[in-house]
Specification:
Blueprint (H helix, E strand, L loop, with lengths): L8 H10 L2 H8 L8 H7 L11 H16 L3 E4 L6 E4 L1 H15 L12 E5 L6 H13 L3 E4 L2 E4 L5 H9 L6 E5 L6 H9 L2
Antiparallel strand pairs: 1-2, 3-5, 3-6, 4-5
Length: 194
């Protein structure tokens, strides 16, 4: 993805669940039989799953699924160990919205030359959210002045602002434009040349 979105574990999970129809079709068209091969090709069942999760990602999947369930994006059926997860309609809509934004190269607002400071104070217990925000800021062309103070010359995308609120970080993240650059001039100019 070349817009401000990076491939995220959350998106990969939603995409994986959205492709869940493949699993049901596998029951009707099992691999290894010549008479099921044409149907498997027709339905794309011979393609390997493109969501191979790392061991570290697998450890995070449970907590992400719980969060997605709370947001109404996925549905769980069954007890915890034997749970079957599927994507909800709201999750499909979110996925389509993200795909549209990703496909649109204009999703990242153009630089207007106005320096903006992003200052955040996210508690240590929310370290994952803090790391997520830093990744998003880098993909928006911002650079760190300090670990929790970032500078860039473009407005933040509306989608990112919405996600900040969804993550419950609205009160922790502050965006300010700078009227007089002072020593920021050198840093901002260096960032614009990249």
């Amino acid at each position: 993805m070349k817009s401000y979105h990076k491939d995220s574990l959350t998106r990969n999970i939603l995409e994986h669940l959205a492709e869940g129809g493949k699993i049901a079709l596998e029951m009707f068209f099992p691999p290894g039989y010549s008479y099921t091969d044409p149907s498997r090709r027709l339905f794309g069942l011979n393609r390997p799953c493109r969501h191979m999760f790392t061991r570290k990602e697998k450890a995070s999947i449970s907590s992400i699924l719980s969060r997605l369930q709370n947001e109404g994006l996925v549905i769980r059926k069954g007890a915890k160990r034997a749970a079957v997860w599927r994507i909800a309609q709201k999750g499909r809509v979110r996925l389509r919205m993200q795909e549209k934004k990703t496909a649109d190269p204009r999703a990242l607002p153009k630089s207007d030359g106005i320096p903006r400071l992003i200052v955040f104070d996210i508690p240590e217990r929310q370290r994952q959210k803090r790391d997520w925000l830093r990744i998003e800021l880098v993909s928006c062309g911002f650079q760190p002045l300090q670990r929790s103070v970032w500078v860039g010359t473009r407005p933040l995308p509306e989608e990112l602002i919405r996600q900040i609120d969804e993550h419950g970080l609205g009160a922790c993240v502050h965006v300010m434009s700078v009227a007089k650059r002072g020593t920021l001039k050198n840093i901002v100019n260096r960032g614009e040349r990249r």
